[in-house]
Amino acid sequence: MSDVHAEVSEPTAVGTRRRFLLVLVVASLVSSGIGWTASALIQSPEQAIAEEDAPSTTTLYVPVEQKIISKSVVARGSLVATGAVDIDVSPTTSGKTVLTQVWRTQGEQVISGEAIVEVSADR
User: Fold this and answer.
1) pTM
2) Residue 11: is its pLDDT beyond 70?
3) Measured between alpha carbons, how far is 54 from 52 in angstroms, rounded to an integer?
4) Which of 28, 45, 84, 90 is deepest in the core (most CB within 10 A)?
């Protein structure tokens, strides 16, 4: 038999760098592919809610109520009249104005919205 000795050359620095670079590029491509696939498949809860369809419209029924809306203010203190108030009654039609009824006398307390006098106008 013949002695065939295959010489195995030791890796050179250039070959080692090329293999390292090739492994690095392949690893980068694989990790990029995994990241891209994961981003396409995985959704955050906020993204899932944003992509849902809007709920269908509905009609709401509420019974109608008729109320007087008011606002009350409670305050403590003293109220003193600073003087008399003259009331000028000018009818919208031409004619004479007549005081027909007086419901409160001078110095008597009056509630808001309460009638004090009644005035009539001739046409």
Assistant:
1) 0.32
2) no
3) 7
4) 28
